[in-house]
Design goal:
GAF domain-containing protein, Beta-Lactamase, transcription, 44% helix, Tscrpt_reg_LuxR_C, five-stranded antiparallel sheet, 335 residues, DNA-binding, 15 helices, Arc Repressor Mutant, subunit A, transcription regulation
């Protein structure tokens, strides 16, 4: 039996995404101890930090802001994109070839807090990264055996997280108003509107989800400033940051139907070409028309369509279009 099979046993997409991560963290903590574990959902389109589950310590907003500032403004090792591209667990010590002091995150963020090593694990389904696990240890480093064992969780837990998030996406019902969050350029939340409080389920500036600080930090650094994040009660929120004088305004609203459809389609594991074929089929184009539009042979189109049938569990083009519309779009308007 592989070292981590007992960790993933019973953890699948039937659980809500918060419970899934809480149980996974408890099981992993028995085998790979950490002083703080952060289990984050990543926006699959942007790899931005989203909804986080913490294990081992209370939330530290200052630490969050420092980590996000490092992630989006500082040239450093072991960034989220690097970890996602690698597909397996990596520690700060190994990423710096045993010289962690060469990392700005280690020097400026971790050392003042007594943190001596960091392990990052991407949660992916083999194609798309859906989450990130960050383990922080005070005193000592993570061993090669711990890193190797943790890497075994990347795909099974990533697939389970994907299935949980996609299932959540199917059940969304939109209609809530948008809200606004005012932040400083360093990510500190200054104020938020009543609608933002209601959408986020937040009592005040100190209780907003970490994705708000992440978006603000990325916007201040000149990068993309949009993301989606799940809530505990099964909704998805879209957030976008823009400059407002010397401050930033983050608009939050429930995701629109086309955004949910895109999320669910990602969960099917479609390749970029399959997504193009699906869009053409949904528009009612024949195989010949799809071939002409996408500059491929009809045989290639037919092969893509067969793969789409398998991934959506349907047997005809009509069922494929109906599945996309009714399961992933029309339900967003249910009252």
């Amino acid at each position: 039996m592989r070292a981590m099979e007992t960790v993933v046993r019973g953890l699948d997409g039937s659980l809500d995404h918060v419970t899934l991560r809480q149980r996974a963290s408890a099981a992993l903590g028995d085998r790979v101890p950490a002083d703080l574990a952060v289990w984050a959902v990543l926006d699959p389109a942007t790899l931005m930090w989203s909804h986080c589950v913490l294990d081992g310590a209370a939330r530290d907003v200052d630490l969050e802001n420092a980590v996000f500032d490092n992630e989006y403004r500082v040239d450093d090792v072991l960034k989220v994109a690097d970890v996602a591209a690698g597909g397996h667990a990596v520690t700060l010590h190994s990423a710096t070839s045993g010289d962690p002091a060469s990392s700005a995150r280690y020097r400026d963020v971790f050392t003042p807090r007594g943190i001596t090593d960091e392990l990052r694990l991407p949660l992916h389904d083999g194609r798309t990264t859906w989450g990130l696990v960050v383990l922080l240890r005070s005193g000592g480093t993570f061993s090669p055996d711990e890193v190797g064992a943790t890497s075994e969780l990347a795909r099974p837990l990533g697939t389970a997280l994907r299935d949980s998030l996609v299932r959540t996406g199917r059940d969304l019902v939109g209609g809530n108003p948008s809200g606004t969050i005012l932040t400083a350029r360093d990510g500190r939340v200054l104020d938020l509107s009543d609608d933002a409080r209601a959408l986020l389920g937040s009592d005040g500036p100190d209780a907003v989800p970490a994705v708000v600080q992440a978006i603000a930090a990325r916007r201040a650094a000149g990068g993309p400033a949009s993301a989606t994040t799940p809530t505990r009660d099964g909704r998805w929120l879209a957030l976008h940051a823009s400059a407002l004088g010397k401050q930033l305004a983050v608009v939050v609203e429930e995701v629109r139907p086309h955004q949910v459809a895109d999320l669910v389609v990602r969960g099917r594991g479609l390749t970029p070409r399959e997504r193009e074929v699906l869009a053409a089929v949904a528009r009612g184009l024949s195989n010949r028309q799809v071939a002409r539009e996408l500059a491929m042979s009809e045989f290639t189109v037919l092969d893509h369509v067969k793969k789409l049938f398998a991934k959506f569990g349907v047997a005809s083009r009509g069922e494929l279009t109906a599945s996309l519309f009714f399961d992933h779009y029309a339900l967003q308007h249910t009252t």
